[in-house]
Fold this protein.
Amino acid sequence: MKKNVKFLNLIKNARNHMEENGYSYTSVTSYIRTWRSIYNYCLSLDIENYSAEVAEKYMHSKYNVSLGESEVKQQRLSSYMQIKIRAIRALTDFSLHGFIPKITRGETIDWPQDYKIQCENFVKLKAKQNYTKDVVRRHELNLYHFVQFLSNRKIKPNDIDASAIFEYFKTLSHCSKSKLSQIRQTLIYAFKFFYNNKFIKNELSIYVPKIHYYAQAKLQKVWTEDEIKRMLASIDTENPLGKRDYAIMLIASNLGLRVSDISNLTMDNIDWNNNSINIIQQKTREPLSLPLNKEIGLSIIDYWKNARPETKSNEIFVSHVMPYTKLTNGAFYHIFNTYYDNSGIKTPEIRKHGFHTLRHSLASRLLEKGTPVNVISNILGHINSNTASQYLKIDIEKLRQCSLEVPDYEV
């Protein structure tokens, strides 16, 4: 039986790398199972070398799935398929960079010496620009993987050109469009920074490929006004948890605040004299002021006076399990799903759940009432008013009007 020794060695070395870097036995064995399947696929077609393109053909041939997809026919990929895709991405990363990165907060950054100072300065600049830690970390990781690619090919800063950039993006065929869009954004910022600081001789940001990706607000992210009322009505406001959750759900559905902003709310953010909530948004670091209606105000007071446990935490909404700290993202997910289940609402499995859907729903309701997009943008706290224009896609009636209202011009 013929063998592809080069491919087998790639699998062997990737497995050793995973074992040396603390991957679990289950992860290693499941990844190898996928790699062996690709190996057999290549043997059947006399393909000698593994590549991202080969992996893409394998997925299309065997499962009719693209590596960049997270769902097919509006159905989320099964956990089995997600593991296969992670395994393929790992093998692609190892074949290109010689390592399988764990994209986590704890991933160690060891900049190649030729790039070290300027890359560190770029990351420091992003931190000074008031981006959140998560966004700064994302830029750091995106840039790190790119310069690792350059370093492995012995490409010096002044030797970077359009072809090197295109070659890198070819290796990212396994990434989703949203991830590619984020990588593109990082590289554009970085190239402009490098050029302005005379680290590279040419302005390379113009060569970063365009990614046709739009973070659209989808219909399955929107709840009707009646559905939201049913979820609120299912909350038992006679018990402490119910008082807390009712106030949270009111804020999310009526003001459209993000989970990160609700979890960080303190009494200092509320101006009772002027009936407003005033915050610095966690995501954008931009100020936002919203009206505090009577119902929301009373629900906060009811929780604060009659249900909130005694705690040193400054946040309004806290866990009711010691040590009574502010709520985690997981707690918010549990809160939403609890009252969604209690409401008896029946929806397709593809329907999105979670607090962010309440934000989308608020935008949809405002749009239905004829609220201008720039006003919706201000309410939701977007820096760029174009961001809110995505919500036009969720109002079918408004879309129909847009398609019909074409002004007449005399010729």
